[in-house]
Amino acid sequence: MGTATTTGAREHARTQEAAADVATMPTRPAAASAIARPDGVLAADLVHAEVVAGGGYTHLAVARGTHVRLTDLTGDACAHVLAYRSDRPFERLNVADTVKVQWQAYLTAGHLLLSDQGRVLASIVADTSGHQDALFGTTTRARNEQRYGDGSAQGPSPAGRELLALGAAKHGLARRDLPPSISFFQGVRVDDEGRPTFLGSAGAGAAVTFRAEVPLLLLVANTAHPLDPRPAFTVGDLEVLAWRGAPTDPKDPLWTATPEGRRAFTNTLADLTARGIA
């Protein structure tokens, strides 16, 4: 049956929903997901499970303490990440401060994602990739049209900014609310002369896990890195798994790992306490 009639369209939609081979979509409820859980995480604690196809995006708002794991399933994923306070989204990731305050451009386990208010949005608690980029942002439509022939969100080579704009719109945010992003799984290093070198992927199975230190909104675009030298648009599947957990507290070694981090955590707790969240 075709989709030219309402009845045909309904049957087609129901067939698609029931198809066993639809892998790149959220699993509801997350507890029913076939995605392997980390050790010690119960199925009942899962709050989100999804595989994002290459050229796709996702968005999720999670409670404080939630852990979100991104996994490069094929070695060709590239996760461009933006973070916001979900309860006050005008407070958002500031990549410049994240790098400057922590004296580190290459973010990995033990580093923090800082807001433009000097507070901790999320901490990186695990990283088996080591390939990331906090300097070059994501791709634009004009750049992808020049490089691949198309950069529209629904096209064959969507730009990261177009995908992030779609995710932002789901939460009442506009293009002007998109700051520079951080990308994971396709690495870049800069030499002493300021010249970037594209490292490519750490390989299939690489993963990074964030811990939400505030009520958190994450936007994730899975699209090619702007410095990827390959002539064809090449992006693999990205797995997203989230589960309930606890935020960092003053007894956690990460709280006092650096003076800069301690101040950011103190600022965060003071704000959350004043608002009745902590």
Please characterize this protein's 3D structure.
There is one protein chain. With 278 residues, the chain is α+β, with helices and mostly antiparallel strands. 20% of the residues lie in helices and 26% in strands.
The backbone outline, from C-alpha atoms, is globular
**Percent of residues in helices:** 10-25%
Radius of gyration in whole Å, from Cα? 19 Å
Q: Which blocks of ≥5 consecutive residues have pLDDT under 50?
A: none
* Total DSSP E strands: 13
Order of helices and strands: HEEEEHEEEHHEEEEEEH
Major β-sheet strand ordering: 1-13-3-11-6-5
Any idea how many domains? 1
Characterize the biggest β-sheet: 6 strands, antiparallel
Defining traits:
278 residues, five-stranded antiparallel sheet, 5 helices, 13 strands, globular
Topology:
Layout: H1 6-18, E1 46-52, E2 56-62, E3 67-72, E4 79-85, H2 95-102, E5 112-114, E6 120-127, E7 132-133, H3 141-148, H4 160-169, E8 182-184, E9 186-190, E10 196-201, E11 207-212, E12 216-222, E13 238-243, H5 259-274
Antiparallel strand pairs: 1-13, 2-12, 3-11, 3-13, 4-8, 4-12, 5-6, 6-11, 7-8, 9-10
Summarize the structure.
With 278 residues, the chain is an alpha+beta fold. The chain contains 5 helices and 13 strands.
